[in-house]
Amino acid sequence: MRGTVFAPAAHVRHAGSFLAFPALESTGLLTCAKEVYGSLPNGFYGLDTILVDAVLRALAGEARAEGATRFDPVELGRVLGLDRAPEVKTIRRRISQLAETGKAGELIAALAKHHLDATGPGGENLVEVLYVDGYVRAYQGTKKIGKLYSTRLKFPVPATEETWATDATGSPVFVVMAEPGASLASELRRLLPELRTAVGDDRRVLVGFDRGGWSPDLLKHQDSGHGGGEGFVVR
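Given the sequence above, the corresponding structure tokens read:
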């Protein structure tokens, strides 16, 4: 990160966070974010700092901006190589600046492509099989939204549904918020072109899903070659 300085020190709190840096590098988050967003508007805290700070707080169990109040900004700043870590107001402003660009989808696509360009721990092809499934997440906000059946709670609750795509080893490729009332079959139809882009070449890929994605119309649409996801076998 530009502008960071690490000085010799002893008994640095949160120093164990450095163990996460190799894994963070392997995700391609910083590289992909720089390709998509370029940089943030002028300010003391740049794009890399905001992202690394968010990752470290999330690993510590405080993913929300408000969680920054539970850290001493000077102590966390030493791990970031700065005088102090960004605080809630700054984090919110910087995240808003990223959101206003409308490029979140591009970042997800870039991260998915980066992941699928790699190989697994044993050298296996991560895109031989892709699994797609939907997950219900109970909603805790104040907006009025529809109810979905929660398998965990065993009854319908106000909730959103996420569609996850995972690789051949079960590791996540990307996750998107499903359209309200969308079925897994309609989500598959919408996401197959994005998966094709993420794979990046003409390899044939098996896409697996549960009974929620079963649809003769989806299979017919895909076999016709109009699905935008040519080269996929859906089962």
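The beta strands are 129-138, 147-150, 155-166, 172-177, 205-208, 232-234. Try to locate this feature in the token string yourself.
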